[in-house]
Give the backbone structure.
Amino acid sequence: MTVIEVDGMVKRYGDTTALAGIDLRVEKGEILGILGPNGAGKTTAVECIGGLRAPDEGEVHVLGLDPRRDRSRLRPVVGMQLQEAMLPDDLEVGEALSLYRSFYREGADVDRLIADVGLEKKRRKRFKELSGGQAQRLSLALALVGRPRIALLDELTSGLDPRGRRDIWQVVERLREDGTTVVLVSHLMEEVERLCDRVVLVDGGRVVADDTPTGLVDRALAPGSRAKGATLEDAYLALTGQAPEPPDLEDLEEAR
Ligand SMILES: Nc1ncnc2c1ncn2[C@@H]1O[C@H](COP(=O)(O)OP(=O)(O)OP(=O)(O)O)[C@@H](O)[C@H]1O
């Protein structure tokens, strides 16, 4: 079952075309990674899917509904982790989660969620006292507190230490076991290789590749490259035109 359908999505900010016609499908229970250089349009795409922004052109459907027009119907089933959570400065971690939990008829166990994201010792800390990584963990917990059927996670683990990253990967793996559909934006190839069933590579506001992580390596590089140790990062750099230029043979000859 297709839960997210995007057709020809265009978004402009003044003179800047952030999305130049994006098509995207996400199936139920799938973990889709969105990769791409800074400014490629990843956050804009996720914000349009989550109903925070309206595309200028094209169609977006989530569970067959319009994310903006049907926002109140989608709110209980779509959880969004944003790059920057906005909470009152003095709200404590435990209070914020209990408050958000109260918005949902059925939701996560707050104590369990706090433990899962590694915030047990910060339960009584106010939002303004959290470090960047702690605020990031809280924003993920807030996205998941209503046990959403679809989780939109923007830069899931950026700013987290290696331990924190692994904690959060386990949280996402549990979402997979529960059948939650996940869209995650990431710059970490290790994260995408570990978690994602499929990767959409966005560059310049367009989808330039859509494949499994291993399929992407095969597609981007010469046959047999994977056996020789080529990685998703190599494929990413090749597909986005960021791979280092191979040395010019004539220059090498001259240097000898
Ligand atoms: N609110 C805004 N007003 C004007 N321009 C914007 C706005 N938000 C994004 N843009 C521009 O739209 C383009 C896409 O930005 P977006 O944040 O979607 O990219 P991204 O792929 O998520 O980047 P990053 O990896 O740096 O987070 C960029 O050129 C950016 O400067």
Observations:
- Residues 118 and 164 are 7 Å apart (CA to CA).
- The domain at 2-77+149-211+241-250 is CATH 3.40.50.300 (Rossmann fold).
- The beta strands are 2-13, 16-27, 31-35, 57-62, 78-81, 150-154, 181-185, 198-203, 206-211.
